[in-house]
Amino acid sequence: MNLVFVCSRNQWRSPTAEAIYKNHADYTAKSAGTELSARIKLTAKLLEWADLIFVMEKRHKQRIIDKFPDTVRSKQLIVLDIPDDYGYMNEELIESIKSSVSPYLD
């Protein structure tokens, strides 16, 4: 299953989520950001590749729908409600991501 994690600048939250799931036997994970300043920018190709799209905040979901309406029409976009309060691989962030994502993977 292909997972994409999205935040604003692809610096802390989505790369942490990618790191958690990228070496898992059942999942392939990638991450991207919605902002022009994102380290890795979200593309239609990445969204097409994804089986599940996880966004950190509601505004990320709306930006994706606004920018890629045809691409995500049949996709599941899941809002994790994880604020931009953590650094990369912060223990609380890892736990928050795992607890929010696991219901969709089990």
Automatic annotation (TrEMBL):
UniProt xrefs under Gene3D superfamilies: 3.40.50.2300
InterPro entries in the cross-refs: Ptyr_pPase, Ptyr_pPase_sf, UCP029416_PTP
Name of this chain's protein: Protein-tyrosine phosphatase
Phosphotyrosine protein phosphatase I domain segment(s): 1-103
Leader sequence residues: none
